[in-house]
Amino acid sequence: MIIYCHANLDEVLQNRLKEALSPKYTLHFQSDTTSKTEAQSLFNKADYILGNPPLDWFSEPQNNLKFWQLDSAGFDQYASVPLNEQTKVANMGDWFARPCAESIIGGILALYRGLDKLTLLKEKTEWIGSPLRAHLRLLSGQEVVILGAGTIGKTVHNFLQGFGCTLHMMARTSPDADIHSREELFDILPNTDLVINTLPGSANQFVDQQFFQTMKKGSVYASVGRGSTTDEPALIAALHSQHLDGAVLDVTEVEPIPNDNPLWKMENVILSQHTGGGHADEHVGKVDLFLNNIMTIENGGSPINEVNLAKGY
To answer: Cβ(152)–Cβ(100) under 8 Å?
Structure first.
């Protein structure tokens, strides 16, 4: 059995995989290959894959592939990948939900409480103090709409309950949501203080010019889902016109953000550079889930967090 690991694993985690798997498995790591051609050749022969290989590698049929463990929660870029019926695929499920939720709420708090500005003042050794107080706002008691009722959306919802926010969730079919259509959403947006976008990539450009125009003047927009779900020029226009008071963006349409993108220079925008899911042990979880799923499949079971690439969930 051939295992190809495209994930970024250090030596400790590579050894953890080697020690846990019996001699019948041959492991190959991307870091050990000398060229893309060599890596792709091993990938094409693999029975098991860990990681997110380049999309164009799937141009050839993966005839041997039994199981593919993505090392991310999102996988919309692979929607068109043709796999054999017997190939099982799993994502990371809710592994990244808590860090993503903590990051986006942390960014919102930094914007509301002026911590981003205070950090810049510290670098300049400039004291302003009391005049800043009038510009600070509270997260407590805000009316919030969360777009998406997946694992990140639900975790954000749970955290914000502790702030005493009035909370709404929007999703087409989820029973956890209280808003199920764009029409219902647009009825409530004019009274909403904060919108947090956790939508998957399948909701392409869902947050568009009409959306921003409908939002309450002086409200804040935050995004930790997929950059493709936001019409970025429309967002920039809404910020320039001061219709929106600010934005917290973990994801953007193009990453890295081009140097000439206006978002870099906007004082009321916090950019967290798609680090929302990061934490010191994030790769440990990938390895543990991969090992668990291999054993489960070898024993005739279904992997944890199994997904359908074409359906997007």
So the answer is: yes
The amino acid present at 157, given as its one-letter code, is H
Q: Residue 289's closest CA among 53, 30, 93? A: 93
- Centre a 10 Å sphere on the Cβ of residue 208 and count the other Cβ atoms it contains: 14
Domains observed in the chain = 2-93+279-298 (3.40.50.720), 97-271 (3.40.50.720)
Tokens of 295: 């054993």
Distance of alpha carbon 19 from alpha carbon 137, whole angstroms: 52
Tens-level pLDDT at each residue, the chain (313 residues): 999 999 999 999 999 999 999 888 999 999 999 999 999 999 999 999 999 999 999 988 888 999 999 999 889 889 999 899 899 999 999 999 999 999 999 999 999 999 999 999 999 999 999 999 999 999 999 999 999 999 999 999 999 999 999 999 999 999 999 999 999 999 999 999 999 999 998 899 999 999 999 999 999 999 999 999 999 999 999 999 999 999 999 999 999 999 999 999 999 999 999 999 999 999 999 999 999 999 999 999 999 999 999 888 8
Beta-bridge mates of residue 269: 247
3-state SS, residue 170: strand
CB 99 within 8 A of CB 276: yes
Q: What is the CA radius of gyration of the chain?
A: 22
Output 74-78 pairs: Cβ under 8 A, ≥24 positions apart. 74/200, 74/201, 74/226, 75/307, 75/309, 75/312, 76/200, 76/201, 76/202, 76/226, 76/228, 76/312, 77/201, 78/309
Are 304 and 67 in contact, with CB atoms under 8 Å apart?
no
The 2-5 sheet, strands edge to edge: 26-29, 2-5, 48-50, 67-69, 88-90
Give the type of residue at 49. I
**Separation of alpha carbons 104 and 222, rounded Å:** 7
